[in-house]
Amino acid sequence: MIYIKYILWVLLLTVSLVDVQAQTIPQRSQVTQNGFTLKGLVRDSETHSPIRGVNIQGNNGGYASSNFEGKFLIEVRIGDELIISHKDFETIYYSVNSTDDLTIDVRPADQQRPTQSYSAKNNIPFKSVIDSAKFYKNISAEKSIQFIAESISKSNSTHQNAEAFEVLADVYSYWKQYDLAVSNYRISLNNVNTVSVQLKLAQAYYLNKNYQESIAVYEQLTKAKLSETVLSDVYEGLGDVLSTTKQHQKAITAYKKGLAIAKRSLITPKITDLNSKIAQTYSASGALSEAESYYKSSLDLATKENKERAVKEKLKVADFNSANQAYSNEIKLRKESLHVIEAIEADTIIDNESDYTLQKQHYKIGNAYYLKKEYDAAIPYLQQSIIEADKRKDLVVEKDAKRKLSEVYRDAGEFEKALKAYEDYTQSVEKLYIKKEQQITQAARFSKNIAEQQNRIESLESDRQLSESRYQLNQEQNKRQTLIIYSLIGGVLLLLLVAYVMFKFIKQQKLANNLLALKSLRSQMNPHFIFNALNSVNSFIATNDERTANKYLSDFSKLMRAVLENSEENFIPLSKEIELIELYTKLEHFRFKDKFEYSLTVDEKIVVSDYTIPPMLLQPYIENAVWHGLRYKKEKGHLTIEIQKQSHDTITIRITDDGIGRKQSKALKTHNQKKQNSKGMGNIEKRVSILNAMYKDKVDVLITDFNTEGDTGTQVIVTLKKDDRKLKNI
């Protein structure tokens, strides 16, 4: 009896299938379960003439075109968006908010764009246009490509051109036109070669099934110096291509290299993804224990990220269990995922193409129960899959679930329900057939429009290259004139350079001459000073005062050592000069105790270390004061050396004596003494003059009578400026 029922059920299914195939496709005006047929008219806004061949596309997959009367019928639902497009007017977007007939009044393109608007549009900078193209990338391929075409016409550099073609390739890649994406990524790279675009090109090759080209790009990138993050992406992409081409061991090697980099750089999402892909590849190669180990790792890592990533990984493991007939584990994982998917769908919309929709998971749970021959458990999940698929307009899953439900009823012996489920399945096949036909028509239209726009862009690029060629030709013609101008400028610059070098040479030569003169003057002063000092020693010895002579000679040797140490310096610290003149004055006072007393004072406000002074500059003035002023005075005189602050960067050194004065001293001198004194003072004046020329008036010397009324005494005022720069000997 059971066999008779089974044969009868098979016959009924066969008759039903023949009947389905004999049916014609329903007209678009047929009312559907959840929508209605919208009647519309497209006409010119001024003449009310109907417009034929207008494309009307709904976001739910419906499509229609206007006939010679401008009329159309399309299946829609409240809330759907219609895209009305035609070559003679701008695309119109209309949201369906009622079942009333629709009349669309349009204006021709030449009326829609007045001259001023066009000019204003031309003034939009490249950056704004390319940003608009990026904005419409995921919304409208046609709009995005229009903006890209405009950006190419505005491009004025290879970098901008590269960016425009990269965005164009991104648009093609998003809309799955991978061959065009490859072409435009390559154009972008011809303008500017960047790693990011090379990665996109390798991915586009892979999606376009140009596997060997993709592998070549990835392998070339592995040899480049890249950041850890990018290198991890490269190995992951290479592994994807190798896995697709069944080169499982090579794919696992590439994935593991990427995983090692991701672990080293602590790229957590990448670690999870690569563990999962290694598991999938091991599974595909038949290494189930290794696959199970890596799936466990990826699942543990995914649960630590977020609920969406965790559920995706859980469902991958469920697919692995399904492939290995571990149906109980599969069912457990899928049931755990249902609540999470519901929570995710409450926040975001999951596309029907995703593997993680509720309808697909209910279907797979029902299928797992069916394979376990637990038919009663399978039926509710398949029924729920049908409900979810209908709610989300997923005809593919709805069809598969109805077919599977028919098989479950059949194997459970419920043939009437099996027949009813099969009839529902055939209706779903009809709907899917209609939808696929519409999608094919839309895809053909889309491809045609894309091809037209691509040709336009290629034409723009050719025009741009031609313009560049003309520009380069003009540049070549201008180069000669520019070369002549630059040659003249270069000649003038060369003359200026020669003049500057000569100036520097003369300046250095002058400086060298000044240094030589300074050395010569110092060499003349030192013997004179030494001669006078030795005369003093000789006078002590002549008077048989050996003890005094020894003490004097000891102090004199200290003085001579300091003088000789500083003899090669143009400037020495002021503190050293103070020590030197203090020692010298002490020696002279030692010889002429009965002739004068002396004092040396330094203003406390002066930071002595901030000042430098030519060596042996003050000694000749002190020597003149003692030998030609105080020595001839009948009563005991006084020598005063005062160092005082004059301003923030200037000090004065006053050497004052109350001797017989310059006039009387000159009268007492012999002819030879006059000659020697004149020569000594002349040397000092020359030194000061040369030093001031070299160091910008650093030293100033003024000699005056101390008491003009009595014509007695002499005062020497030395003004010394601070020099913040470090004075160096050349």
UniProtKB/TrEMBL annotation:
The chain crosses the membrane at residues 483-503. TPR repeats lie at residues 232-265. Keywords: Coiled coil, Membrane, TPR repeat, Transmembrane, Transmembrane helix. GO terms for molecular function: phosphorelay sensor kinase activity. GO terms for cellular component: membrane. Residues 443-470 form a coiled coil. Residues 518-596 form the Signal transduction histidine kinase internal region domain. It comes from the Bacteria. This is Tetratricopeptide repeat-containing protein.
